[in-house]
């Protein structure tokens, strides 16, 4: 794993109650939210940048439709604190139609650590764009989750297979793939080196 240096920002993408709706079908990695909380706890302890995105879908049947008050709420386990930044969006990328890019420049953030829901939607799209925009991008594979899909040929893909193929496509090309514990261990090592 590459060394994470200069105070990375933690991105928490769309961890909203609407993703618990049966509409999405089966998902993998039920520990994603707990792992995001572990990272949030570490970032909060250090006073580092934490940035949330909140999806307000314009699609009428989406559980994340902007008029669905319950669906667009953040899940309690990873709810933002009052001072933490939230960018609202209507499309998959957290960089499009928001001031996220400007905010990262203003704060001189060069490294981002990405978590959230769902792997094949906002996580993948935001990770690709982050890499293309030149950010040193880390994707935490056990702090994201995918949903089952049936493709245009009627072929079923399990959430586990969706997760594997999405992460494989992002690996090296757009991001460094890491696990929660790797990130936490590396940050603890940075602590001991600086003491």
UniProtKB/TrEMBL annotation:
One Pfam family hit: Isochorismatase
InterPro entries attached to this UniProt entry: Isochorismatase-like_dom, Isochorismatase-like_hydrls, Isochorismatase-like_sf
GO molecular function: hydrolase activity
Keyword Chloroplast: no
SUPFAM superfamilies attached to this UniProt entry: Isochorismatase-like hydrolases
Keywords carried by this UniProt record: Hydrolase
Isochorismatase-like domain: residues covered: 9-153
CDD domains per UniProt: nicotinamidase_related (cd01014)
UniProt-listed PANTHER family: ISOCHORISMATASE HYDROLASE (PTHR43540:SF1), PEROXYUREIDOACRYLATE/UREIDOACRYLATE AMIDOHYDROLASE-RELATED (PTHR43540)
Family named by the database record: Belongs to the isochorismatase family.
Protein's UniProt name: Isochorismatase-like domain-containing protein
Organism: Pseudoneobacillus rhizosphaerae
Lineage, uppermost ranks: Bacteria, Bacillati, Bacillota, Bacilli, Bacillales
